[in-house]
Amino acid sequence: GQHILSQAFIQTARAETVGFHLTDNTLTIDLHTNNLTATQIQDAETLANEIVWQNRPIHIRFATLEQAKKLPLRKIPPIERGKLRLIEIEDFDLTACGGTHVQNSGSVGQIKITKIERRGEQLRVSFVCGKRALLDYRYKNSIINQLTTNLTTGTNDILPAITKLQDELKNANRTLRQQQEIVLQLEAQSLLEACTKKGKINVVTHVFSDRNANEVRQVGQILAKQPKTIALLALAGPKTTLFFTKSEDAPGQMDVLLKTAVQMLEGGGGGGSEFQAQGGGPAVPTDRLQQILNRAGKLASGQIK
Asked: How do residues 138-193 score in pLDDT, each as one tens digit?
């Protein structure tokens, strides 16, 4: 199969094979090009299968290196002595090879290219032959049949149906994000209204247990947009996450406060800047985590003049 496909790429696209890989599950050739059109790839695949269908005889013969240089070999291997074992697919391909080969091209069976990958200046072509091609088609056909059942559509309408589902999912996710932003805005507003005030400065401390780290960060960022506000937030769970932030007109050093809080966690780390810092450490009970935030809040109040 490899001999046939390699010669097919030479004849249809002038793309020579520079590598071949065979394992229990994969069969690939590497082409000395990285720019083939879909039409060129299909033409090579079609020619390869035409050679299979023509059931051309395959001959094995031997030649010295000097004799081989006078033959239309696809590639002459680097040997210095002895004879070369040549495999000839009648009137199609002639190459030196020491492997096992069938007696005619029809015995190779169907040749199907399954994937094309660009690798630097080369293209890696994955393909299957014979029984492997049958098993590959059987598996993919079962997937198509399952999709037509699940999507209640015909084979030709699978891609439009999937595209429609993707569009619907994008729209649903967009709506969900918008609703989520509204919920987080309301939650931030509630925390702001209930927070401790030090003069004209709002100091918000809160431990979340039913949010994820990104949502906690969003709440903090919403609060930091409010004037004269410091937000010291934590997320309880398998590990503790801390997120400290403040508005530009609020006093205090968030990185300093975070360092102190992490020390009280007795493990962990983090860092940031004057305006925003994030870190974490081992899991601790929620009440202990609230105590740590309250302590950080008192330190923040001490930084307020």
From this structure: 999 999 999 999 999 999 999 999 999 999 999 999 999 999 999 999 999 999 99
Query: How many Cβ atoms are within 10 Å of 247's Cβ, its own excluded?
Result: 17
Question: Is pLDDT at 304 greater than 60 in this prediction?
Answer: no
Q: Identify whether the C-beta of residue 85 lies closer than 8 Å to the C-beta of residue 60.
A: yes
291-301: average pLDDT: 86
Look-up: residue for tokens 């004849």?
11
Angle at the Cα of 45 from the Cα atoms of 42 and 49, rounded to 5 degrees: 140
| Beta pairing partners, 212 | none
Region 71-78: what's the mean pLDDT? 75
Could you identify the residue written with the tokens 């290196």? 65
The DSSP call for residue 127 is E
Fold of 194-302: Diaminopimelate Epimerase; Chain A, domain 1 (3.10.310)
Q: For domain 2-130, which architecture applies?
A: 2-Layer Sandwich (3.30)
Q: Where in the chain is the domain with CATH 3.10.310.40?
A: 194-302
CA-CA distance, 205 to 292, in Å (whole number)?
10
Spatial contact of 253 and 303, defined as CB atoms under 8 Å apart: yes
Residue 188 is predicted with a pLDDT of: 95
Report pLDDT for 184. Answer: 95
DSSP strands (E only) in 8-160 = 17-22, 27-31, 58-64, 83-89, 93-96, 111-119, 122-129
Q: Which amino acid is at 105?
A: S
Q: Choose among 53, 69, 74: nearest CA to 3.
A: 74
181-210 burial, b at 16+ Cβ within 10 Å, e below that, comes to eeebeebbeebeeebeebeebbbbbbbbee
pTM for this entry: 0.67
* Statement: residue 70 has pLDDT above 90: no
Distance CA 206, CA 269 (A): 20
**Which residue spans of the chain are classified as CATH 3.30.980.10?**
2-130
| Helix or strand (DSSP H, E) at 198 | strand 196-198
